[in-house]
Amino acid sequence: MTKQLERNYVWECDFGERTHLKPIIKKLLDEQDASSLQMVSLMVNHNVYNLEFFIVFSYDNPIIGQIDRMKDMMIGSGVRYRPDITYDELFSELEHSRFNLMTLIDSQQVDVMYDQNFQYIERREVAKIISMRPLGKKLPVFISHTSKNKPFVEEIIAYLNAANLPVWYDDINIDFGESIVNKVQEGIKDSGAVIFWVTNDFLKSNWCQIEMESFLARLAGKNDILILTIVFEDVNIDELPLFIVGRKFLKVSSTDTINQIAMKLIPTLQKYFKEKMIN
After folding, report:
1. For a designed S-S bond to 102, which of 42, 54, 170, 271 qualifies (C-beta 3.0 to 4.6 A apart)?
2. Spatial separation of the C-alpha atoms in residues 33 and 55, rounded to whole Å
């Protein structure tokens, strides 16, 4: 009989969400004896700047279907198969104190040893004590403007933020190397409100026109967006799009300060988002 080579399967797991893997490991160790599934190795890194958890299944002479069974169970648990990482590579990191190694050869060891291998409790336990709600996930206010108006826009952002209103702003939300079109589309899709900063330059800008049309399409399709418009005094009302003229807009002059403009817009925005949360 031809000798079978050893086969290793490395899985990258979530250090902060691991309890659901215990019954899977136990079941596989019960179903697949040591002549097939030689051992299950747990590699755990407790460095708080680089928490890691790997599980390695080592097979010697598996029966047909056993490896597929293991793969199906592990993939179904949400962990990631890492064929680009070898057991030897992980093992070599032991001498650098990167990992703690635990080897399991039967299911009875799992309950006794599994939890002992981790110094930190799971994410859900921490969340019971300390808030882990992701920040920056509130619906932002999108400000549609031309580059000439950036100084005014950047000034009003601080007022909106102080009123607990997050803002989507291209200079901040788009990183170097990212697609401007894709990121702006995301901003339009994810925003809860939009402020059109309408000047004569705005009306001449093809890009601003595209943004306006995109928000109008969203309004017509879902009606899930608040549209506010600031119109500067030198803009001819006859040149405004009909959907703006048909809604109450804020007319401002050169004597109006950003503080005054913000004071008029903020109550409307706050009321809208409050009602949106209730509904």
Report:
1. 42
2. 18
Angle at 48 between CA 45 and CA 115, to 5 degrees: 50
- The answer to whether 6 touches 59, Cβ cutoff 8 Å, is yes
pLDDT tens by residue, 161-217:
999 998 887 655 555 666 667 777 887 888 899 999 999 998 888 888 888 888 888
Beta bridge partners of 252: 232
Euclidean distance between CA atoms 105 and 34, whole angstroms: 7
Type of residue found at 103:
T
Residue range 141-278, CATH number: 3.40.50.10140
Q: What tokens does 77 get?
A: 């648990």
CB 111 within 8 A of CB 22: yes
Query: Of the candidates 72, 43, 68, 37, which has an alpha carbon nearest to the alpha carbon of residue 55?
Result: 43
Using alpha carbons only, give the angle 135, 139, 140 rounded to the nearest 5 degrees: 90
Residue boundaries of the structural domains of the chain? 7-127, 141-278
Which tens digits make up the pLDDT trace of 41-80?
999 999 999 999 999 999 988 999 999 999 999 999 999 9
What lies within 8 Å, CB to CB, of 73 at 6+ separation is: 24, 27, 28
